[in-house]
Specification:
- The chain has a four-stranded antiparallel sheet with strand order 1-2-3-4. It has a four-stranded antiparallel sheet with strand order 5-6-7-8, with no helix packed on it.
- The protein has two domains: about 5-165, 7 Propeller (Methylamine Dehydrogenase, Chain H); about 175-245, ATPase, nucleotide binding domain (Nucleotidyltransferase, domain 5, 2-Layer Sandwich).
- It contains four helices and 17 strands.
- A hairpin with a 6-residue loop joins β7 (about 75-80) and β8.
- It is globular and about 60 Å long.
- The chain starts with a helix and ends with a helix.
- By secondary structure, the chain is of the alpha+beta class.
């Protein structure tokens, strides 16, 4: 294989939804052999393989690159791997036939569930399902805009592209969009209202407001006050308490 072909192969791996890159390593899913390959990004030599389960497909890294996620479609789960030690940390149920997924800047995973014609949203830290969105038949590709405000899901059999985003209007065009806007704007107005009530009651002039939780990235543009965003604050707090108790 000449050098030009090596460069082409490397580029193809980086663009594939079934490969990802972290710390001089390329991780590739192998659905027929039920494992993932760990490739040295400089030498292109396979350093190791990791058995993950039946028919691994989508693969991606957490925003801080501390965890590697693999969609194991035949076992309906996401496997979480440490990209440094190459050890499996845990796994969690991810709906029927998770094909591919994309990781949101908040850390949540948007998954295409091919058999159920839906996209699902999971918090990979807890394994909790946060939302389910109906899409076309056999959803495959998933992508997220850099600002995290739009999620794109493609459906193979219906030749459709679905844009999942925050409701633009409070008054929807039908029952479904009215329910969506009611849930989102109702939650936002509750948060804005509680913040203002606390400020009025305490007489604080410039309080420090911290927004946290899996959907904090999604609603941040709709909040009235200046704030600090930390999507994982609760988990970090629990980890701190655990460490204090352990010591």
């Amino acid at each position: 294989m000449n050098f030009n072909w090596i460069k082409l192969l490397t580029i193809a791996i980086f663009l594939s939804p079934f490969a990802t890159y972290a710390k001089d390593r390329v991780f590739v899913t192998n659905e027929k052999s039920n494992n993932i390959s760990v490739i040295n990004a400089e030498t292109l030599i396979v350093e190791d393989t990791i058995d993950v389960g039946d028919r691994p497909r989508g693969i991606g890294l957490s925003p801080d690159s501390s965890e590697l996620y693999v969609a194991v479609s035949e076992e309906n789960k996401i496997v979480v791997i440490d990209p440094n030690s190459l050890k499996i940390l845990r796994d969690f149920e991810a709906g029927s036939d998770p094909e591919t997924f994309a990781v949101h800047p908040s850390g949540n995973i948007y998954i295409s569930n091919e058999d159920d014609a839906k996209a699902s949203v999971y918090d990979p830290k807890t394994g909790k399902e946060l939302a389910v969105i109906k899409v076309g038949l056999e959803p495959e590709g998933v992508a997220i805009s850099p600002d995290g405000e739009r999620v794109i899901v493609t459906s193979e059999s219906t030749n459709m592209l679905h844009v999942i985003k925050f409701p633009e209007n409070v008054i929807g065009r039908n029952t479904e969009s009215n329910i969506q806007s009611g849930i989102m704007y109702g939650a936002i107005d509750s948060i804005n209202g509680m913040i203002q009530r606390i400020i009025n009651e305490t007489k604080w002039k410039n309080p420090s407001i911290i927004v946290t939780g899996g959907f904090s990235e999604l609603i941040k543009s709709e909040l009235d006050k200046r704030f600090i965003i930390n999507s994982n604050l609760t988990l970090e707090g629990l980890n701190t308490i655990h460490n204090l108790i352990s010591n």
